[in-house]
Design a protein that fits this description.
mainly alpha, 16 helices
């Protein structure tokens, strides 16, 4: 994961080499054009230099904006201040570890439903620590998104497999059978040892959402107070996360992995390296995950910088929709109407929070101070 984030430094280096090797008299390669016959263009470009490297024309170019420092009065994130990025990296390590361990104890549907609580934690932390203002209709949108995620997970948990159904039943009969099966499963789980594992897994996944929310809010606070390119933010988080993970892996290997009880287990570094080098599918998948995570964190930080951490968490939740579409296309999942309802709630909550659609009730619309309008005189017709 952190190796993929460190890969962002390759992109930064590529941009630096490209700018150094590209000719100065090729304006299209530098994000703009030059006026013909203008003697003052050189002076104007020199006055518009931002950060000592980029001109105002290049600053507005979307192609190079991800590697440009914010052009405002924020303090540059250099020197010892770079170590602040170790805090979100530690939160990322804790969240990923808890979620993966919790997934061992619960079903994938329960895992998905529990992850829906992320946006609530992000919204709460944004209000408490960043002093953001979230209106009533936006809180309603957050709960609608959580409900949509829960419905999607519930569909995967209770919807029967169509191929396993011997005969079609009415909606009422199907609902009664589902409720009866659910009550029987609850009674069986209450008296079985697996109930404790399920509760433990849910608590781990819920705790992971707290760490993820803390990571999002910390990143928003850092990007709001200090100026650093999102690509370099991801790269520095990858460096700190990789070093912390490497130290932890070596310590756990020496303490647990090389013992008889821990050999060939989760903390055995030799076994992990053997599986990567001997099984091609694991190596290829690992490389693809590195590339995916690097891009995922870069785009996520760009949203945090431009909008907010809460908006990032909502958009992150919507990736469930695209995963479902790809799974249907590959034949990994069967179509369920209940999931359509869940995804509709998911999309509606996202649009409502980002003011793409209006709240259904006027009472939910925030009251803004009325701006004084200038008095208009009568229009004289000629």
């Amino acid at each position: 994961m952190f190796v993929g984030e460190m890969g962002c430094w390759l992109v930064v280096a590529g941009f630096a080499v490209f700018r150094r090797l590209s000719p100065k008299n090729a304006p299209l390669l530098h994000g703009g054009y030059e006026q013909v016959g203008s003697q003052d263009s050189t002076e104007i470009d020199a006055d518009d230099e931002l950060d000592g490297r980029f001109s105002a024309q290049e600053e507005a170019d979307p192609a190079v904006k991800p590697i440009i420092t914010n052009a405002d009065e924020r303090t540059p994130l250099v020197g010892w201040r770079v170590s602040l990025l170790a805090m979100p990296a530690c939160c990322d390590i804790a969240a990923t570890t808890l979620m993966n361990v919790g997934l061992l104890f619960v079903a994938a549907s329960i895992y998905q439903m529990t992850r829906g609580a992320l946006i609530l934690f992000v919204g709460l932390f944004s209000v408490l620590f960043l002093h953001r203002q979230i209106f009533l209709y936006q809180w309603s949108a957050l709960f609608i998104v959580v409900l949509g995620v829960a419905v999607v997970g519930l569909a995967g948990a209770i919807a029967p497999n169509p191929q396993a159904q011997p005969d079609p039943r009415s909606l009422t009969e199907t609902s009664i059978l589902l409720l009866r099966d659910a009550s029987q499963q609850l009674k069986a789980a209450a008296v079985s040892p697996s109930a404790l594992k399920t509760v433990l897994g849910v608590l781990m996944i819920a705790g992971a959402q707290i760490f993820t929310a803390t990571q999002f809010v910390l990143e928003e606070w850092i990007l709001e107070k200090y100026a650093l390119e999102p690509l370099k933010v991801v790269g520095w988080e990858g460096v700190f996360g990789f070093l912390i993970t490497l130290v932890g892996m070596i310590g756990l290997h020496l303490a647990v992995g090389r013992t008889e009880a821990g050999r060939n287990g989760y903390f055995d570094m030799r076994e992990g390296w053997r599986e990567i080098t001997h099984y091609r599918i694991i190596a290829v998948t690992s490389v693809l995950i590195m590339i995916s995570i690097g891009g995922f964190n870069f785009f996520g930080l760009s949203i945090t910088r431009s909008v907010s951490a809460t908006a990032r968490s909502i958009i992150d939740t919507c990736r469930t929709l695209f995963i479902w579409i790809v799974s249907l296309g590959l034949g990994w999942e069967t179509f369920k109407w209940l999931q359509i309802l869940g995804f509709a709630l998911l999309v509606y909550g996202t649009f409502l929070f980002n003011d793409i659609v209006r709240p259904p009730l006027k009472a939910c619309v925030p009251r803004r101070k009325a701006e004084a309008l200038l008095e208009e005189g009568p229009i004289e017709h000629m």
